Automatic annotation (TrEMBL):
Keywords of this entry: Signal
Signal peptide: 1-23
Name of the protein in its database record: DUF3558 domain-containing protein
Species classification: Bacteria, Bacillati, Actinomycetota, Actinomycetes, Kitasatosporales
Domain of life: Bacteria
Length: 194
């Protein structure tokens, strides 16, 4: 076996064993690719004008997990999570258990991205909202026992890695997510049908 054939064989085996497909870019660098389709909406929420592909890394498989919980107290919550190759990359959640301080990043952001290490920025829109690199929180109003109560909505994303771009992307997501939560929060209330 010639040296060239042996190197090619080793490279082919390594490529087959990797979890993502790759190719060489124009600059000779190895580029990873996606083997799955990027969702057209997030957690059933339309996101017009948002480049959703920025939220999803190269990989083989995408999985969406949704969960809604109710109990006998005032807590109704929802969680929608996306995983790529079993690694969490995006989380959208909401709950009556008020976050408390809109100036503090969602706690999930520490697990997914670490300490944001910078001040939040206000996100313009119908809901009070703040954003950090890869994390955003907003307060919607949802009916509970005949009164409107604060309903905290958050979006946490691992991607994009660039901090400025990550702030921009979650800022685009949080207002539609809060609007969707406010519109559908009665389905998350304890005792509500659905």
């Amino acid at each position: 076996m010639t040296e060239r054939v042996r190197i090619f064989s080793v490279a082919c085996i390594a490529l087959l064993m990797s979890s993502t497909a790759c190719s060489r870019g124009d600059d000779g660098e190895v580029e990873q690719s996606r083997s799955y389709d990027v969702p057209e909406s997030l957690c059933g929420i339309e996101m017009p004008g948002v480049e959703l592909d920025k939220l999803f890394p190269p990989g083989e498989r995408i999985e969406e997990r949704q969960q809604s919980e109710q109990d006998s107290e005032r807590y109704g919550s929802f969680t929608c999570q996306y995983l790529v190759d079993r690694v969490p990359v995006l989380l959208v959640s909401g709950h009556f258990d008020v976050h408390g301080d809109i100036e503090t990043p969602p706690w999930q952001s520490y697990a997914m991205r670490g300490d944001p290490g910078r001040e939040s920025v206000a996100v313009e829109g119908d809901f009070e909202a703040r954003a950090w690199p890869g994390a955003a929180g907003a307060v919607a109003q949802c009916p509970f026992d005949g009164e409107l109560d604060p309903y905290y909505v958050s979006v946490v994303s691992m991607y994009p890695k660039d901090e400025d771009e990550a702030v921009e992307v979650v800022s685009e997501l949080i207002q539609p997510a809060a609007a969707h939560a406010e519109e559908h929060c009665t389905a998350s209330q304890p005792g509500a049908p659905g």
